Amino acid sequence: MNHRIPLYNADGELADWVSEQRLALLEAAGLIARVVRHPKGHINRAILFRRPGEGAAVELRQYMGTRYSFREHLDNGRLCWKLRRLGHGDELRPIFLAVVAECMASQ
Asked: Which of 57, 59, 55, 76 has the alpha carbon at shortest distance from 67?
C-alpha cells in the first residue's frame, strides 16, 4: 500500500504529501525535525526543520497585540474579567481627553 504522509514546514503549514520512501530519504538528509507516530506505530505526520532565511515563527499574540482584559480567578472560585491598567496615575488622562475632544468636535 502506498501510504501518503503529510509533511509540514516548521511553521506548521502543510508543505506536501510524501511517501514513506521519500520520508526516509529526507530523514537521511537531516531535513526532518520530528516524526509523529500513532500509538499503533504508523507515521501520522513529519515536520521539517526551519531552513536558513525562512524567518522566525510568528505567534498569534503578535497579530492580536496586547491583551487589555483577562480572566481572573477569585478566592471564592469564580471567574471574572479584569482590565489591565494602561498607565499609572493620570499620565494617560490628557491623551484620553484629547481623543474625546476630537470625537466631539463639530464636523
From this structure: 59
Q: What is the DSSP letter of 15?
A: E
**Comparison of pLDDT for 107 and 101, the residue scoring more:** 101
Q: Report the alpha-carbon distance of residue 90 to residue 94 in Å, rounded.
A: 8
| Torsion of the alpha carbons at 49, 54, 60 and 66, rounded to the nearest 10 | 130
Burial (CB < 10 A; 0-12, 13-18, 19+), residue 46, is buried
Specify the pTM.
Answer: 0.49
Beta carbons within 8 Å of 3's beta carbon, 6+ residues apart: 19, 20, 42
Decide: 43 and 56 in contact? Cβ < 8 Å.
no
What is the tens place of the pLDDT at every residue in 62-99? 445 556 666 777 788 777 777 666 667 777 778 888 88
